[in-house]
Amino acid sequence: MTHTFGARLVTLRDRLGMTQKDMCELAGIDRKTQSAYENDKRYPDAEYLIALLQHGFDVLYLLTGKETAYAGLINENLLRDVLIAVEDASTRNQIAIESSKKATVVALVYQASCIAGHIDPALVDKAVRLAG
Protein backbone atom coordinates (compact mmCIF):
# COMPACT_ATOMS: atom_id res chain seq x y z
CA MET A 1 0.00 0.00 0.00
CA THR A 2 1.21 3.48 -0.79
CA HIS A 3 1.21 5.31 2.51
CA THR A 4 0.86 9.01 1.73
CA PHE A 5 -1.83 10.97 -0.05
CA GLY A 6 0.73 12.39 -2.48
CA ALA A 7 2.16 8.99 -3.37
CA ARG A 8 -1.33 7.60 -3.96
CA LEU A 9 -2.17 10.62 -6.13
CA VAL A 10 0.91 9.99 -8.30
CA THR A 11 0.02 6.29 -8.53
CA LEU A 12 -3.51 7.02 -9.75
CA ARG A 13 -2.34 9.76 -12.12
CA ASP A 14 0.19 7.37 -13.66
CA ARG A 15 -2.37 4.55 -13.82
CA LEU A 16 -4.65 6.82 -15.86
CA GLY A 17 -1.75 7.89 -18.09
CA MET A 18 -1.94 11.54 -17.08
CA THR A 19 0.78 14.15 -16.65
CA GLN A 20 0.89 16.88 -14.02
CA LYS A 21 -0.15 19.30 -16.76
CA ASP A 22 -3.20 17.13 -17.52
CA MET A 23 -4.11 17.17 -13.83
CA CYS A 24 -3.81 20.95 -13.68
CA GLU A 25 -6.14 21.37 -16.65
CA LEU A 26 -8.62 18.83 -15.27
CA ALA A 27 -8.80 20.47 -11.83
CA GLY A 28 -8.21 24.11 -12.74
CA ILE A 29 -5.05 24.51 -10.64
CA ASP A 30 -1.47 25.49 -11.37
CA ARG A 31 1.48 23.10 -11.60
CA LYS A 32 3.01 24.35 -8.33
CA THR A 33 -0.19 23.39 -6.48
CA GLN A 34 -0.31 19.96 -8.13
CA SER A 35 3.31 19.37 -7.20
CA ALA A 36 2.59 20.39 -3.60
CA TYR A 37 -0.25 17.83 -3.47
CA GLU A 38 1.94 15.08 -4.91
CA ASN A 39 4.75 15.86 -2.47
CA ASP A 40 2.49 16.05 0.60
CA LYS A 41 3.29 19.71 1.16
CA ARG A 42 -0.38 20.69 0.78
CA TYR A 43 -3.71 18.90 0.72
CA PRO A 44 -6.50 19.61 -1.76
CA ASP A 45 -9.94 21.02 -1.10
CA ALA A 46 -13.23 19.32 -1.90
CA GLU A 47 -13.51 21.05 -5.29
CA TYR A 48 -10.28 19.39 -6.45
CA LEU A 49 -11.39 15.98 -5.17
CA ILE A 50 -14.76 16.31 -6.89
CA ALA A 51 -13.01 17.12 -10.18
CA LEU A 52 -10.90 13.98 -9.80
CA LEU A 53 -13.93 11.86 -8.93
CA GLN A 54 -15.69 13.06 -12.08
CA HIS A 55 -12.70 11.90 -14.14
CA GLY A 56 -12.44 8.35 -12.82
CA PHE A 57 -10.13 8.77 -9.85
CA ASP A 58 -10.77 6.59 -6.79
CA VAL A 59 -11.02 9.43 -4.26
CA LEU A 60 -11.66 7.07 -1.35
CA TYR A 61 -8.33 5.40 -2.13
CA LEU A 62 -6.63 8.80 -2.23
CA LEU A 63 -8.00 9.66 1.20
CA THR A 64 -7.74 6.31 2.97
CA GLY A 65 -5.38 4.08 1.01
CA LYS A 66 -8.13 1.49 0.56
CA GLU A 67 -9.18 0.88 -3.04
CA THR A 68 -12.84 0.59 -3.86
CA ALA A 69 -14.65 -1.18 -6.66
CA TYR A 70 -16.85 1.11 -8.67
CA ALA A 71 -18.86 -0.04 -11.64
CA GLY A 72 -16.41 0.21 -14.51
CA LEU A 73 -13.32 0.56 -12.34
CA ILE A 74 -11.49 -2.65 -11.55
CA ASN A 75 -8.51 -3.22 -9.31
CA GLU A 76 -6.60 -5.31 -11.84
CA ASN A 77 -4.06 -6.61 -9.32
CA LEU A 78 -6.77 -7.80 -6.96
CA LEU A 79 -8.74 -9.36 -9.81
CA ARG A 80 -5.64 -11.22 -10.97
CA ASP A 81 -4.95 -12.45 -7.43
CA VAL A 82 -8.56 -13.60 -7.03
CA LEU A 83 -8.44 -15.49 -10.32
CA ILE A 84 -5.20 -17.19 -9.26
CA ALA A 85 -6.67 -18.05 -5.85
CA VAL A 86 -9.77 -19.58 -7.46
CA GLU A 87 -7.66 -21.58 -9.93
CA ASP A 88 -5.37 -22.79 -7.10
CA ALA A 89 -8.33 -23.79 -4.92
CA SER A 90 -9.93 -25.62 -7.83
CA THR A 91 -6.74 -27.56 -8.50
CA ARG A 92 -6.04 -28.23 -4.80
CA ASN A 93 -9.57 -29.55 -4.26
CA GLN A 94 -9.58 -31.38 -7.62
CA ILE A 95 -12.78 -29.63 -8.69
CA ALA A 96 -13.44 -28.73 -12.30
CA ILE A 97 -15.73 -25.72 -12.63
CA GLU A 98 -17.44 -24.77 -15.88
CA SER A 99 -16.56 -21.31 -17.17
CA SER A 100 -19.83 -19.56 -16.33
CA LYS A 101 -19.76 -20.84 -12.74
CA LYS A 102 -16.07 -19.95 -12.40
CA ALA A 103 -16.85 -16.39 -13.53
CA THR A 104 -19.52 -16.18 -10.84
CA VAL A 105 -17.09 -17.49 -8.19
CA VAL A 106 -14.43 -14.98 -9.25
CA ALA A 107 -16.95 -12.12 -9.14
CA LEU A 108 -18.18 -13.14 -5.70
CA VAL A 109 -14.70 -13.49 -4.24
CA TYR A 110 -13.58 -10.25 -5.89
CA GLN A 111 -16.49 -8.29 -4.39
CA ALA A 112 -15.90 -9.78 -0.94
CA SER A 113 -12.17 -9.05 -1.22
CA CYS A 114 -12.81 -5.43 -2.18
CA ILE A 115 -14.92 -4.98 0.93
CA ALA A 116 -12.57 -6.90 3.25
CA GLY A 117 -9.39 -5.45 1.80
CA HIS A 118 -7.88 -8.91 1.32
CA ILE A 119 -8.64 -12.34 -0.16
CA ASP A 120 -10.04 -14.80 2.37
CA PRO A 121 -8.70 -18.27 1.47
CA ALA A 122 -11.53 -19.99 3.39
CA LEU A 123 -14.11 -18.09 1.31
CA VAL A 124 -12.31 -19.05 -1.90
CA ASP A 125 -12.32 -22.76 -0.94
CA LYS A 126 -15.96 -22.68 0.10
CA ALA A 127 -17.05 -20.89 -3.10
CA VAL A 128 -15.08 -23.33 -5.27
CA ARG A 129 -16.58 -26.36 -3.49
CA LEU A 130 -20.11 -24.94 -3.84
CA ALA A 131 -19.62 -24.20 -7.54
CA GLY A 132 -18.15 -27.65 -8.23
Proportion of residues in β-strands: under 5%
Low-pLDDT sequence parts: none
Principal-axis shape equals elongated
Number of domains: 2
What's the Cα radius of gyration? 19 Å
The name CATH uses for the topology of the largest domain is 434 Repressor (Amino-terminal Domain)
CATH homology superfamily name of the largest domain: lambda repressor-like DNA-binding domains
| CATH class identity of the largest domain | Mainly Alpha
Structural class: mainly alpha
Q: Would you count the extended β strands for me?
A: 0
The N- to C-terminal Cα distance equals: 34 Å
The description of the largest β-sheet is:
none
Distinct helical segment count: 8
What is the mean predicted local confidence, pLDDT?
88
Q: What is the succession of H and E elements?
A: HHHHHHHH
Helix content: 55-70%
Question: Could you say what the CATH architecture of the largest domain is?
Answer: Orthogonal Bundle
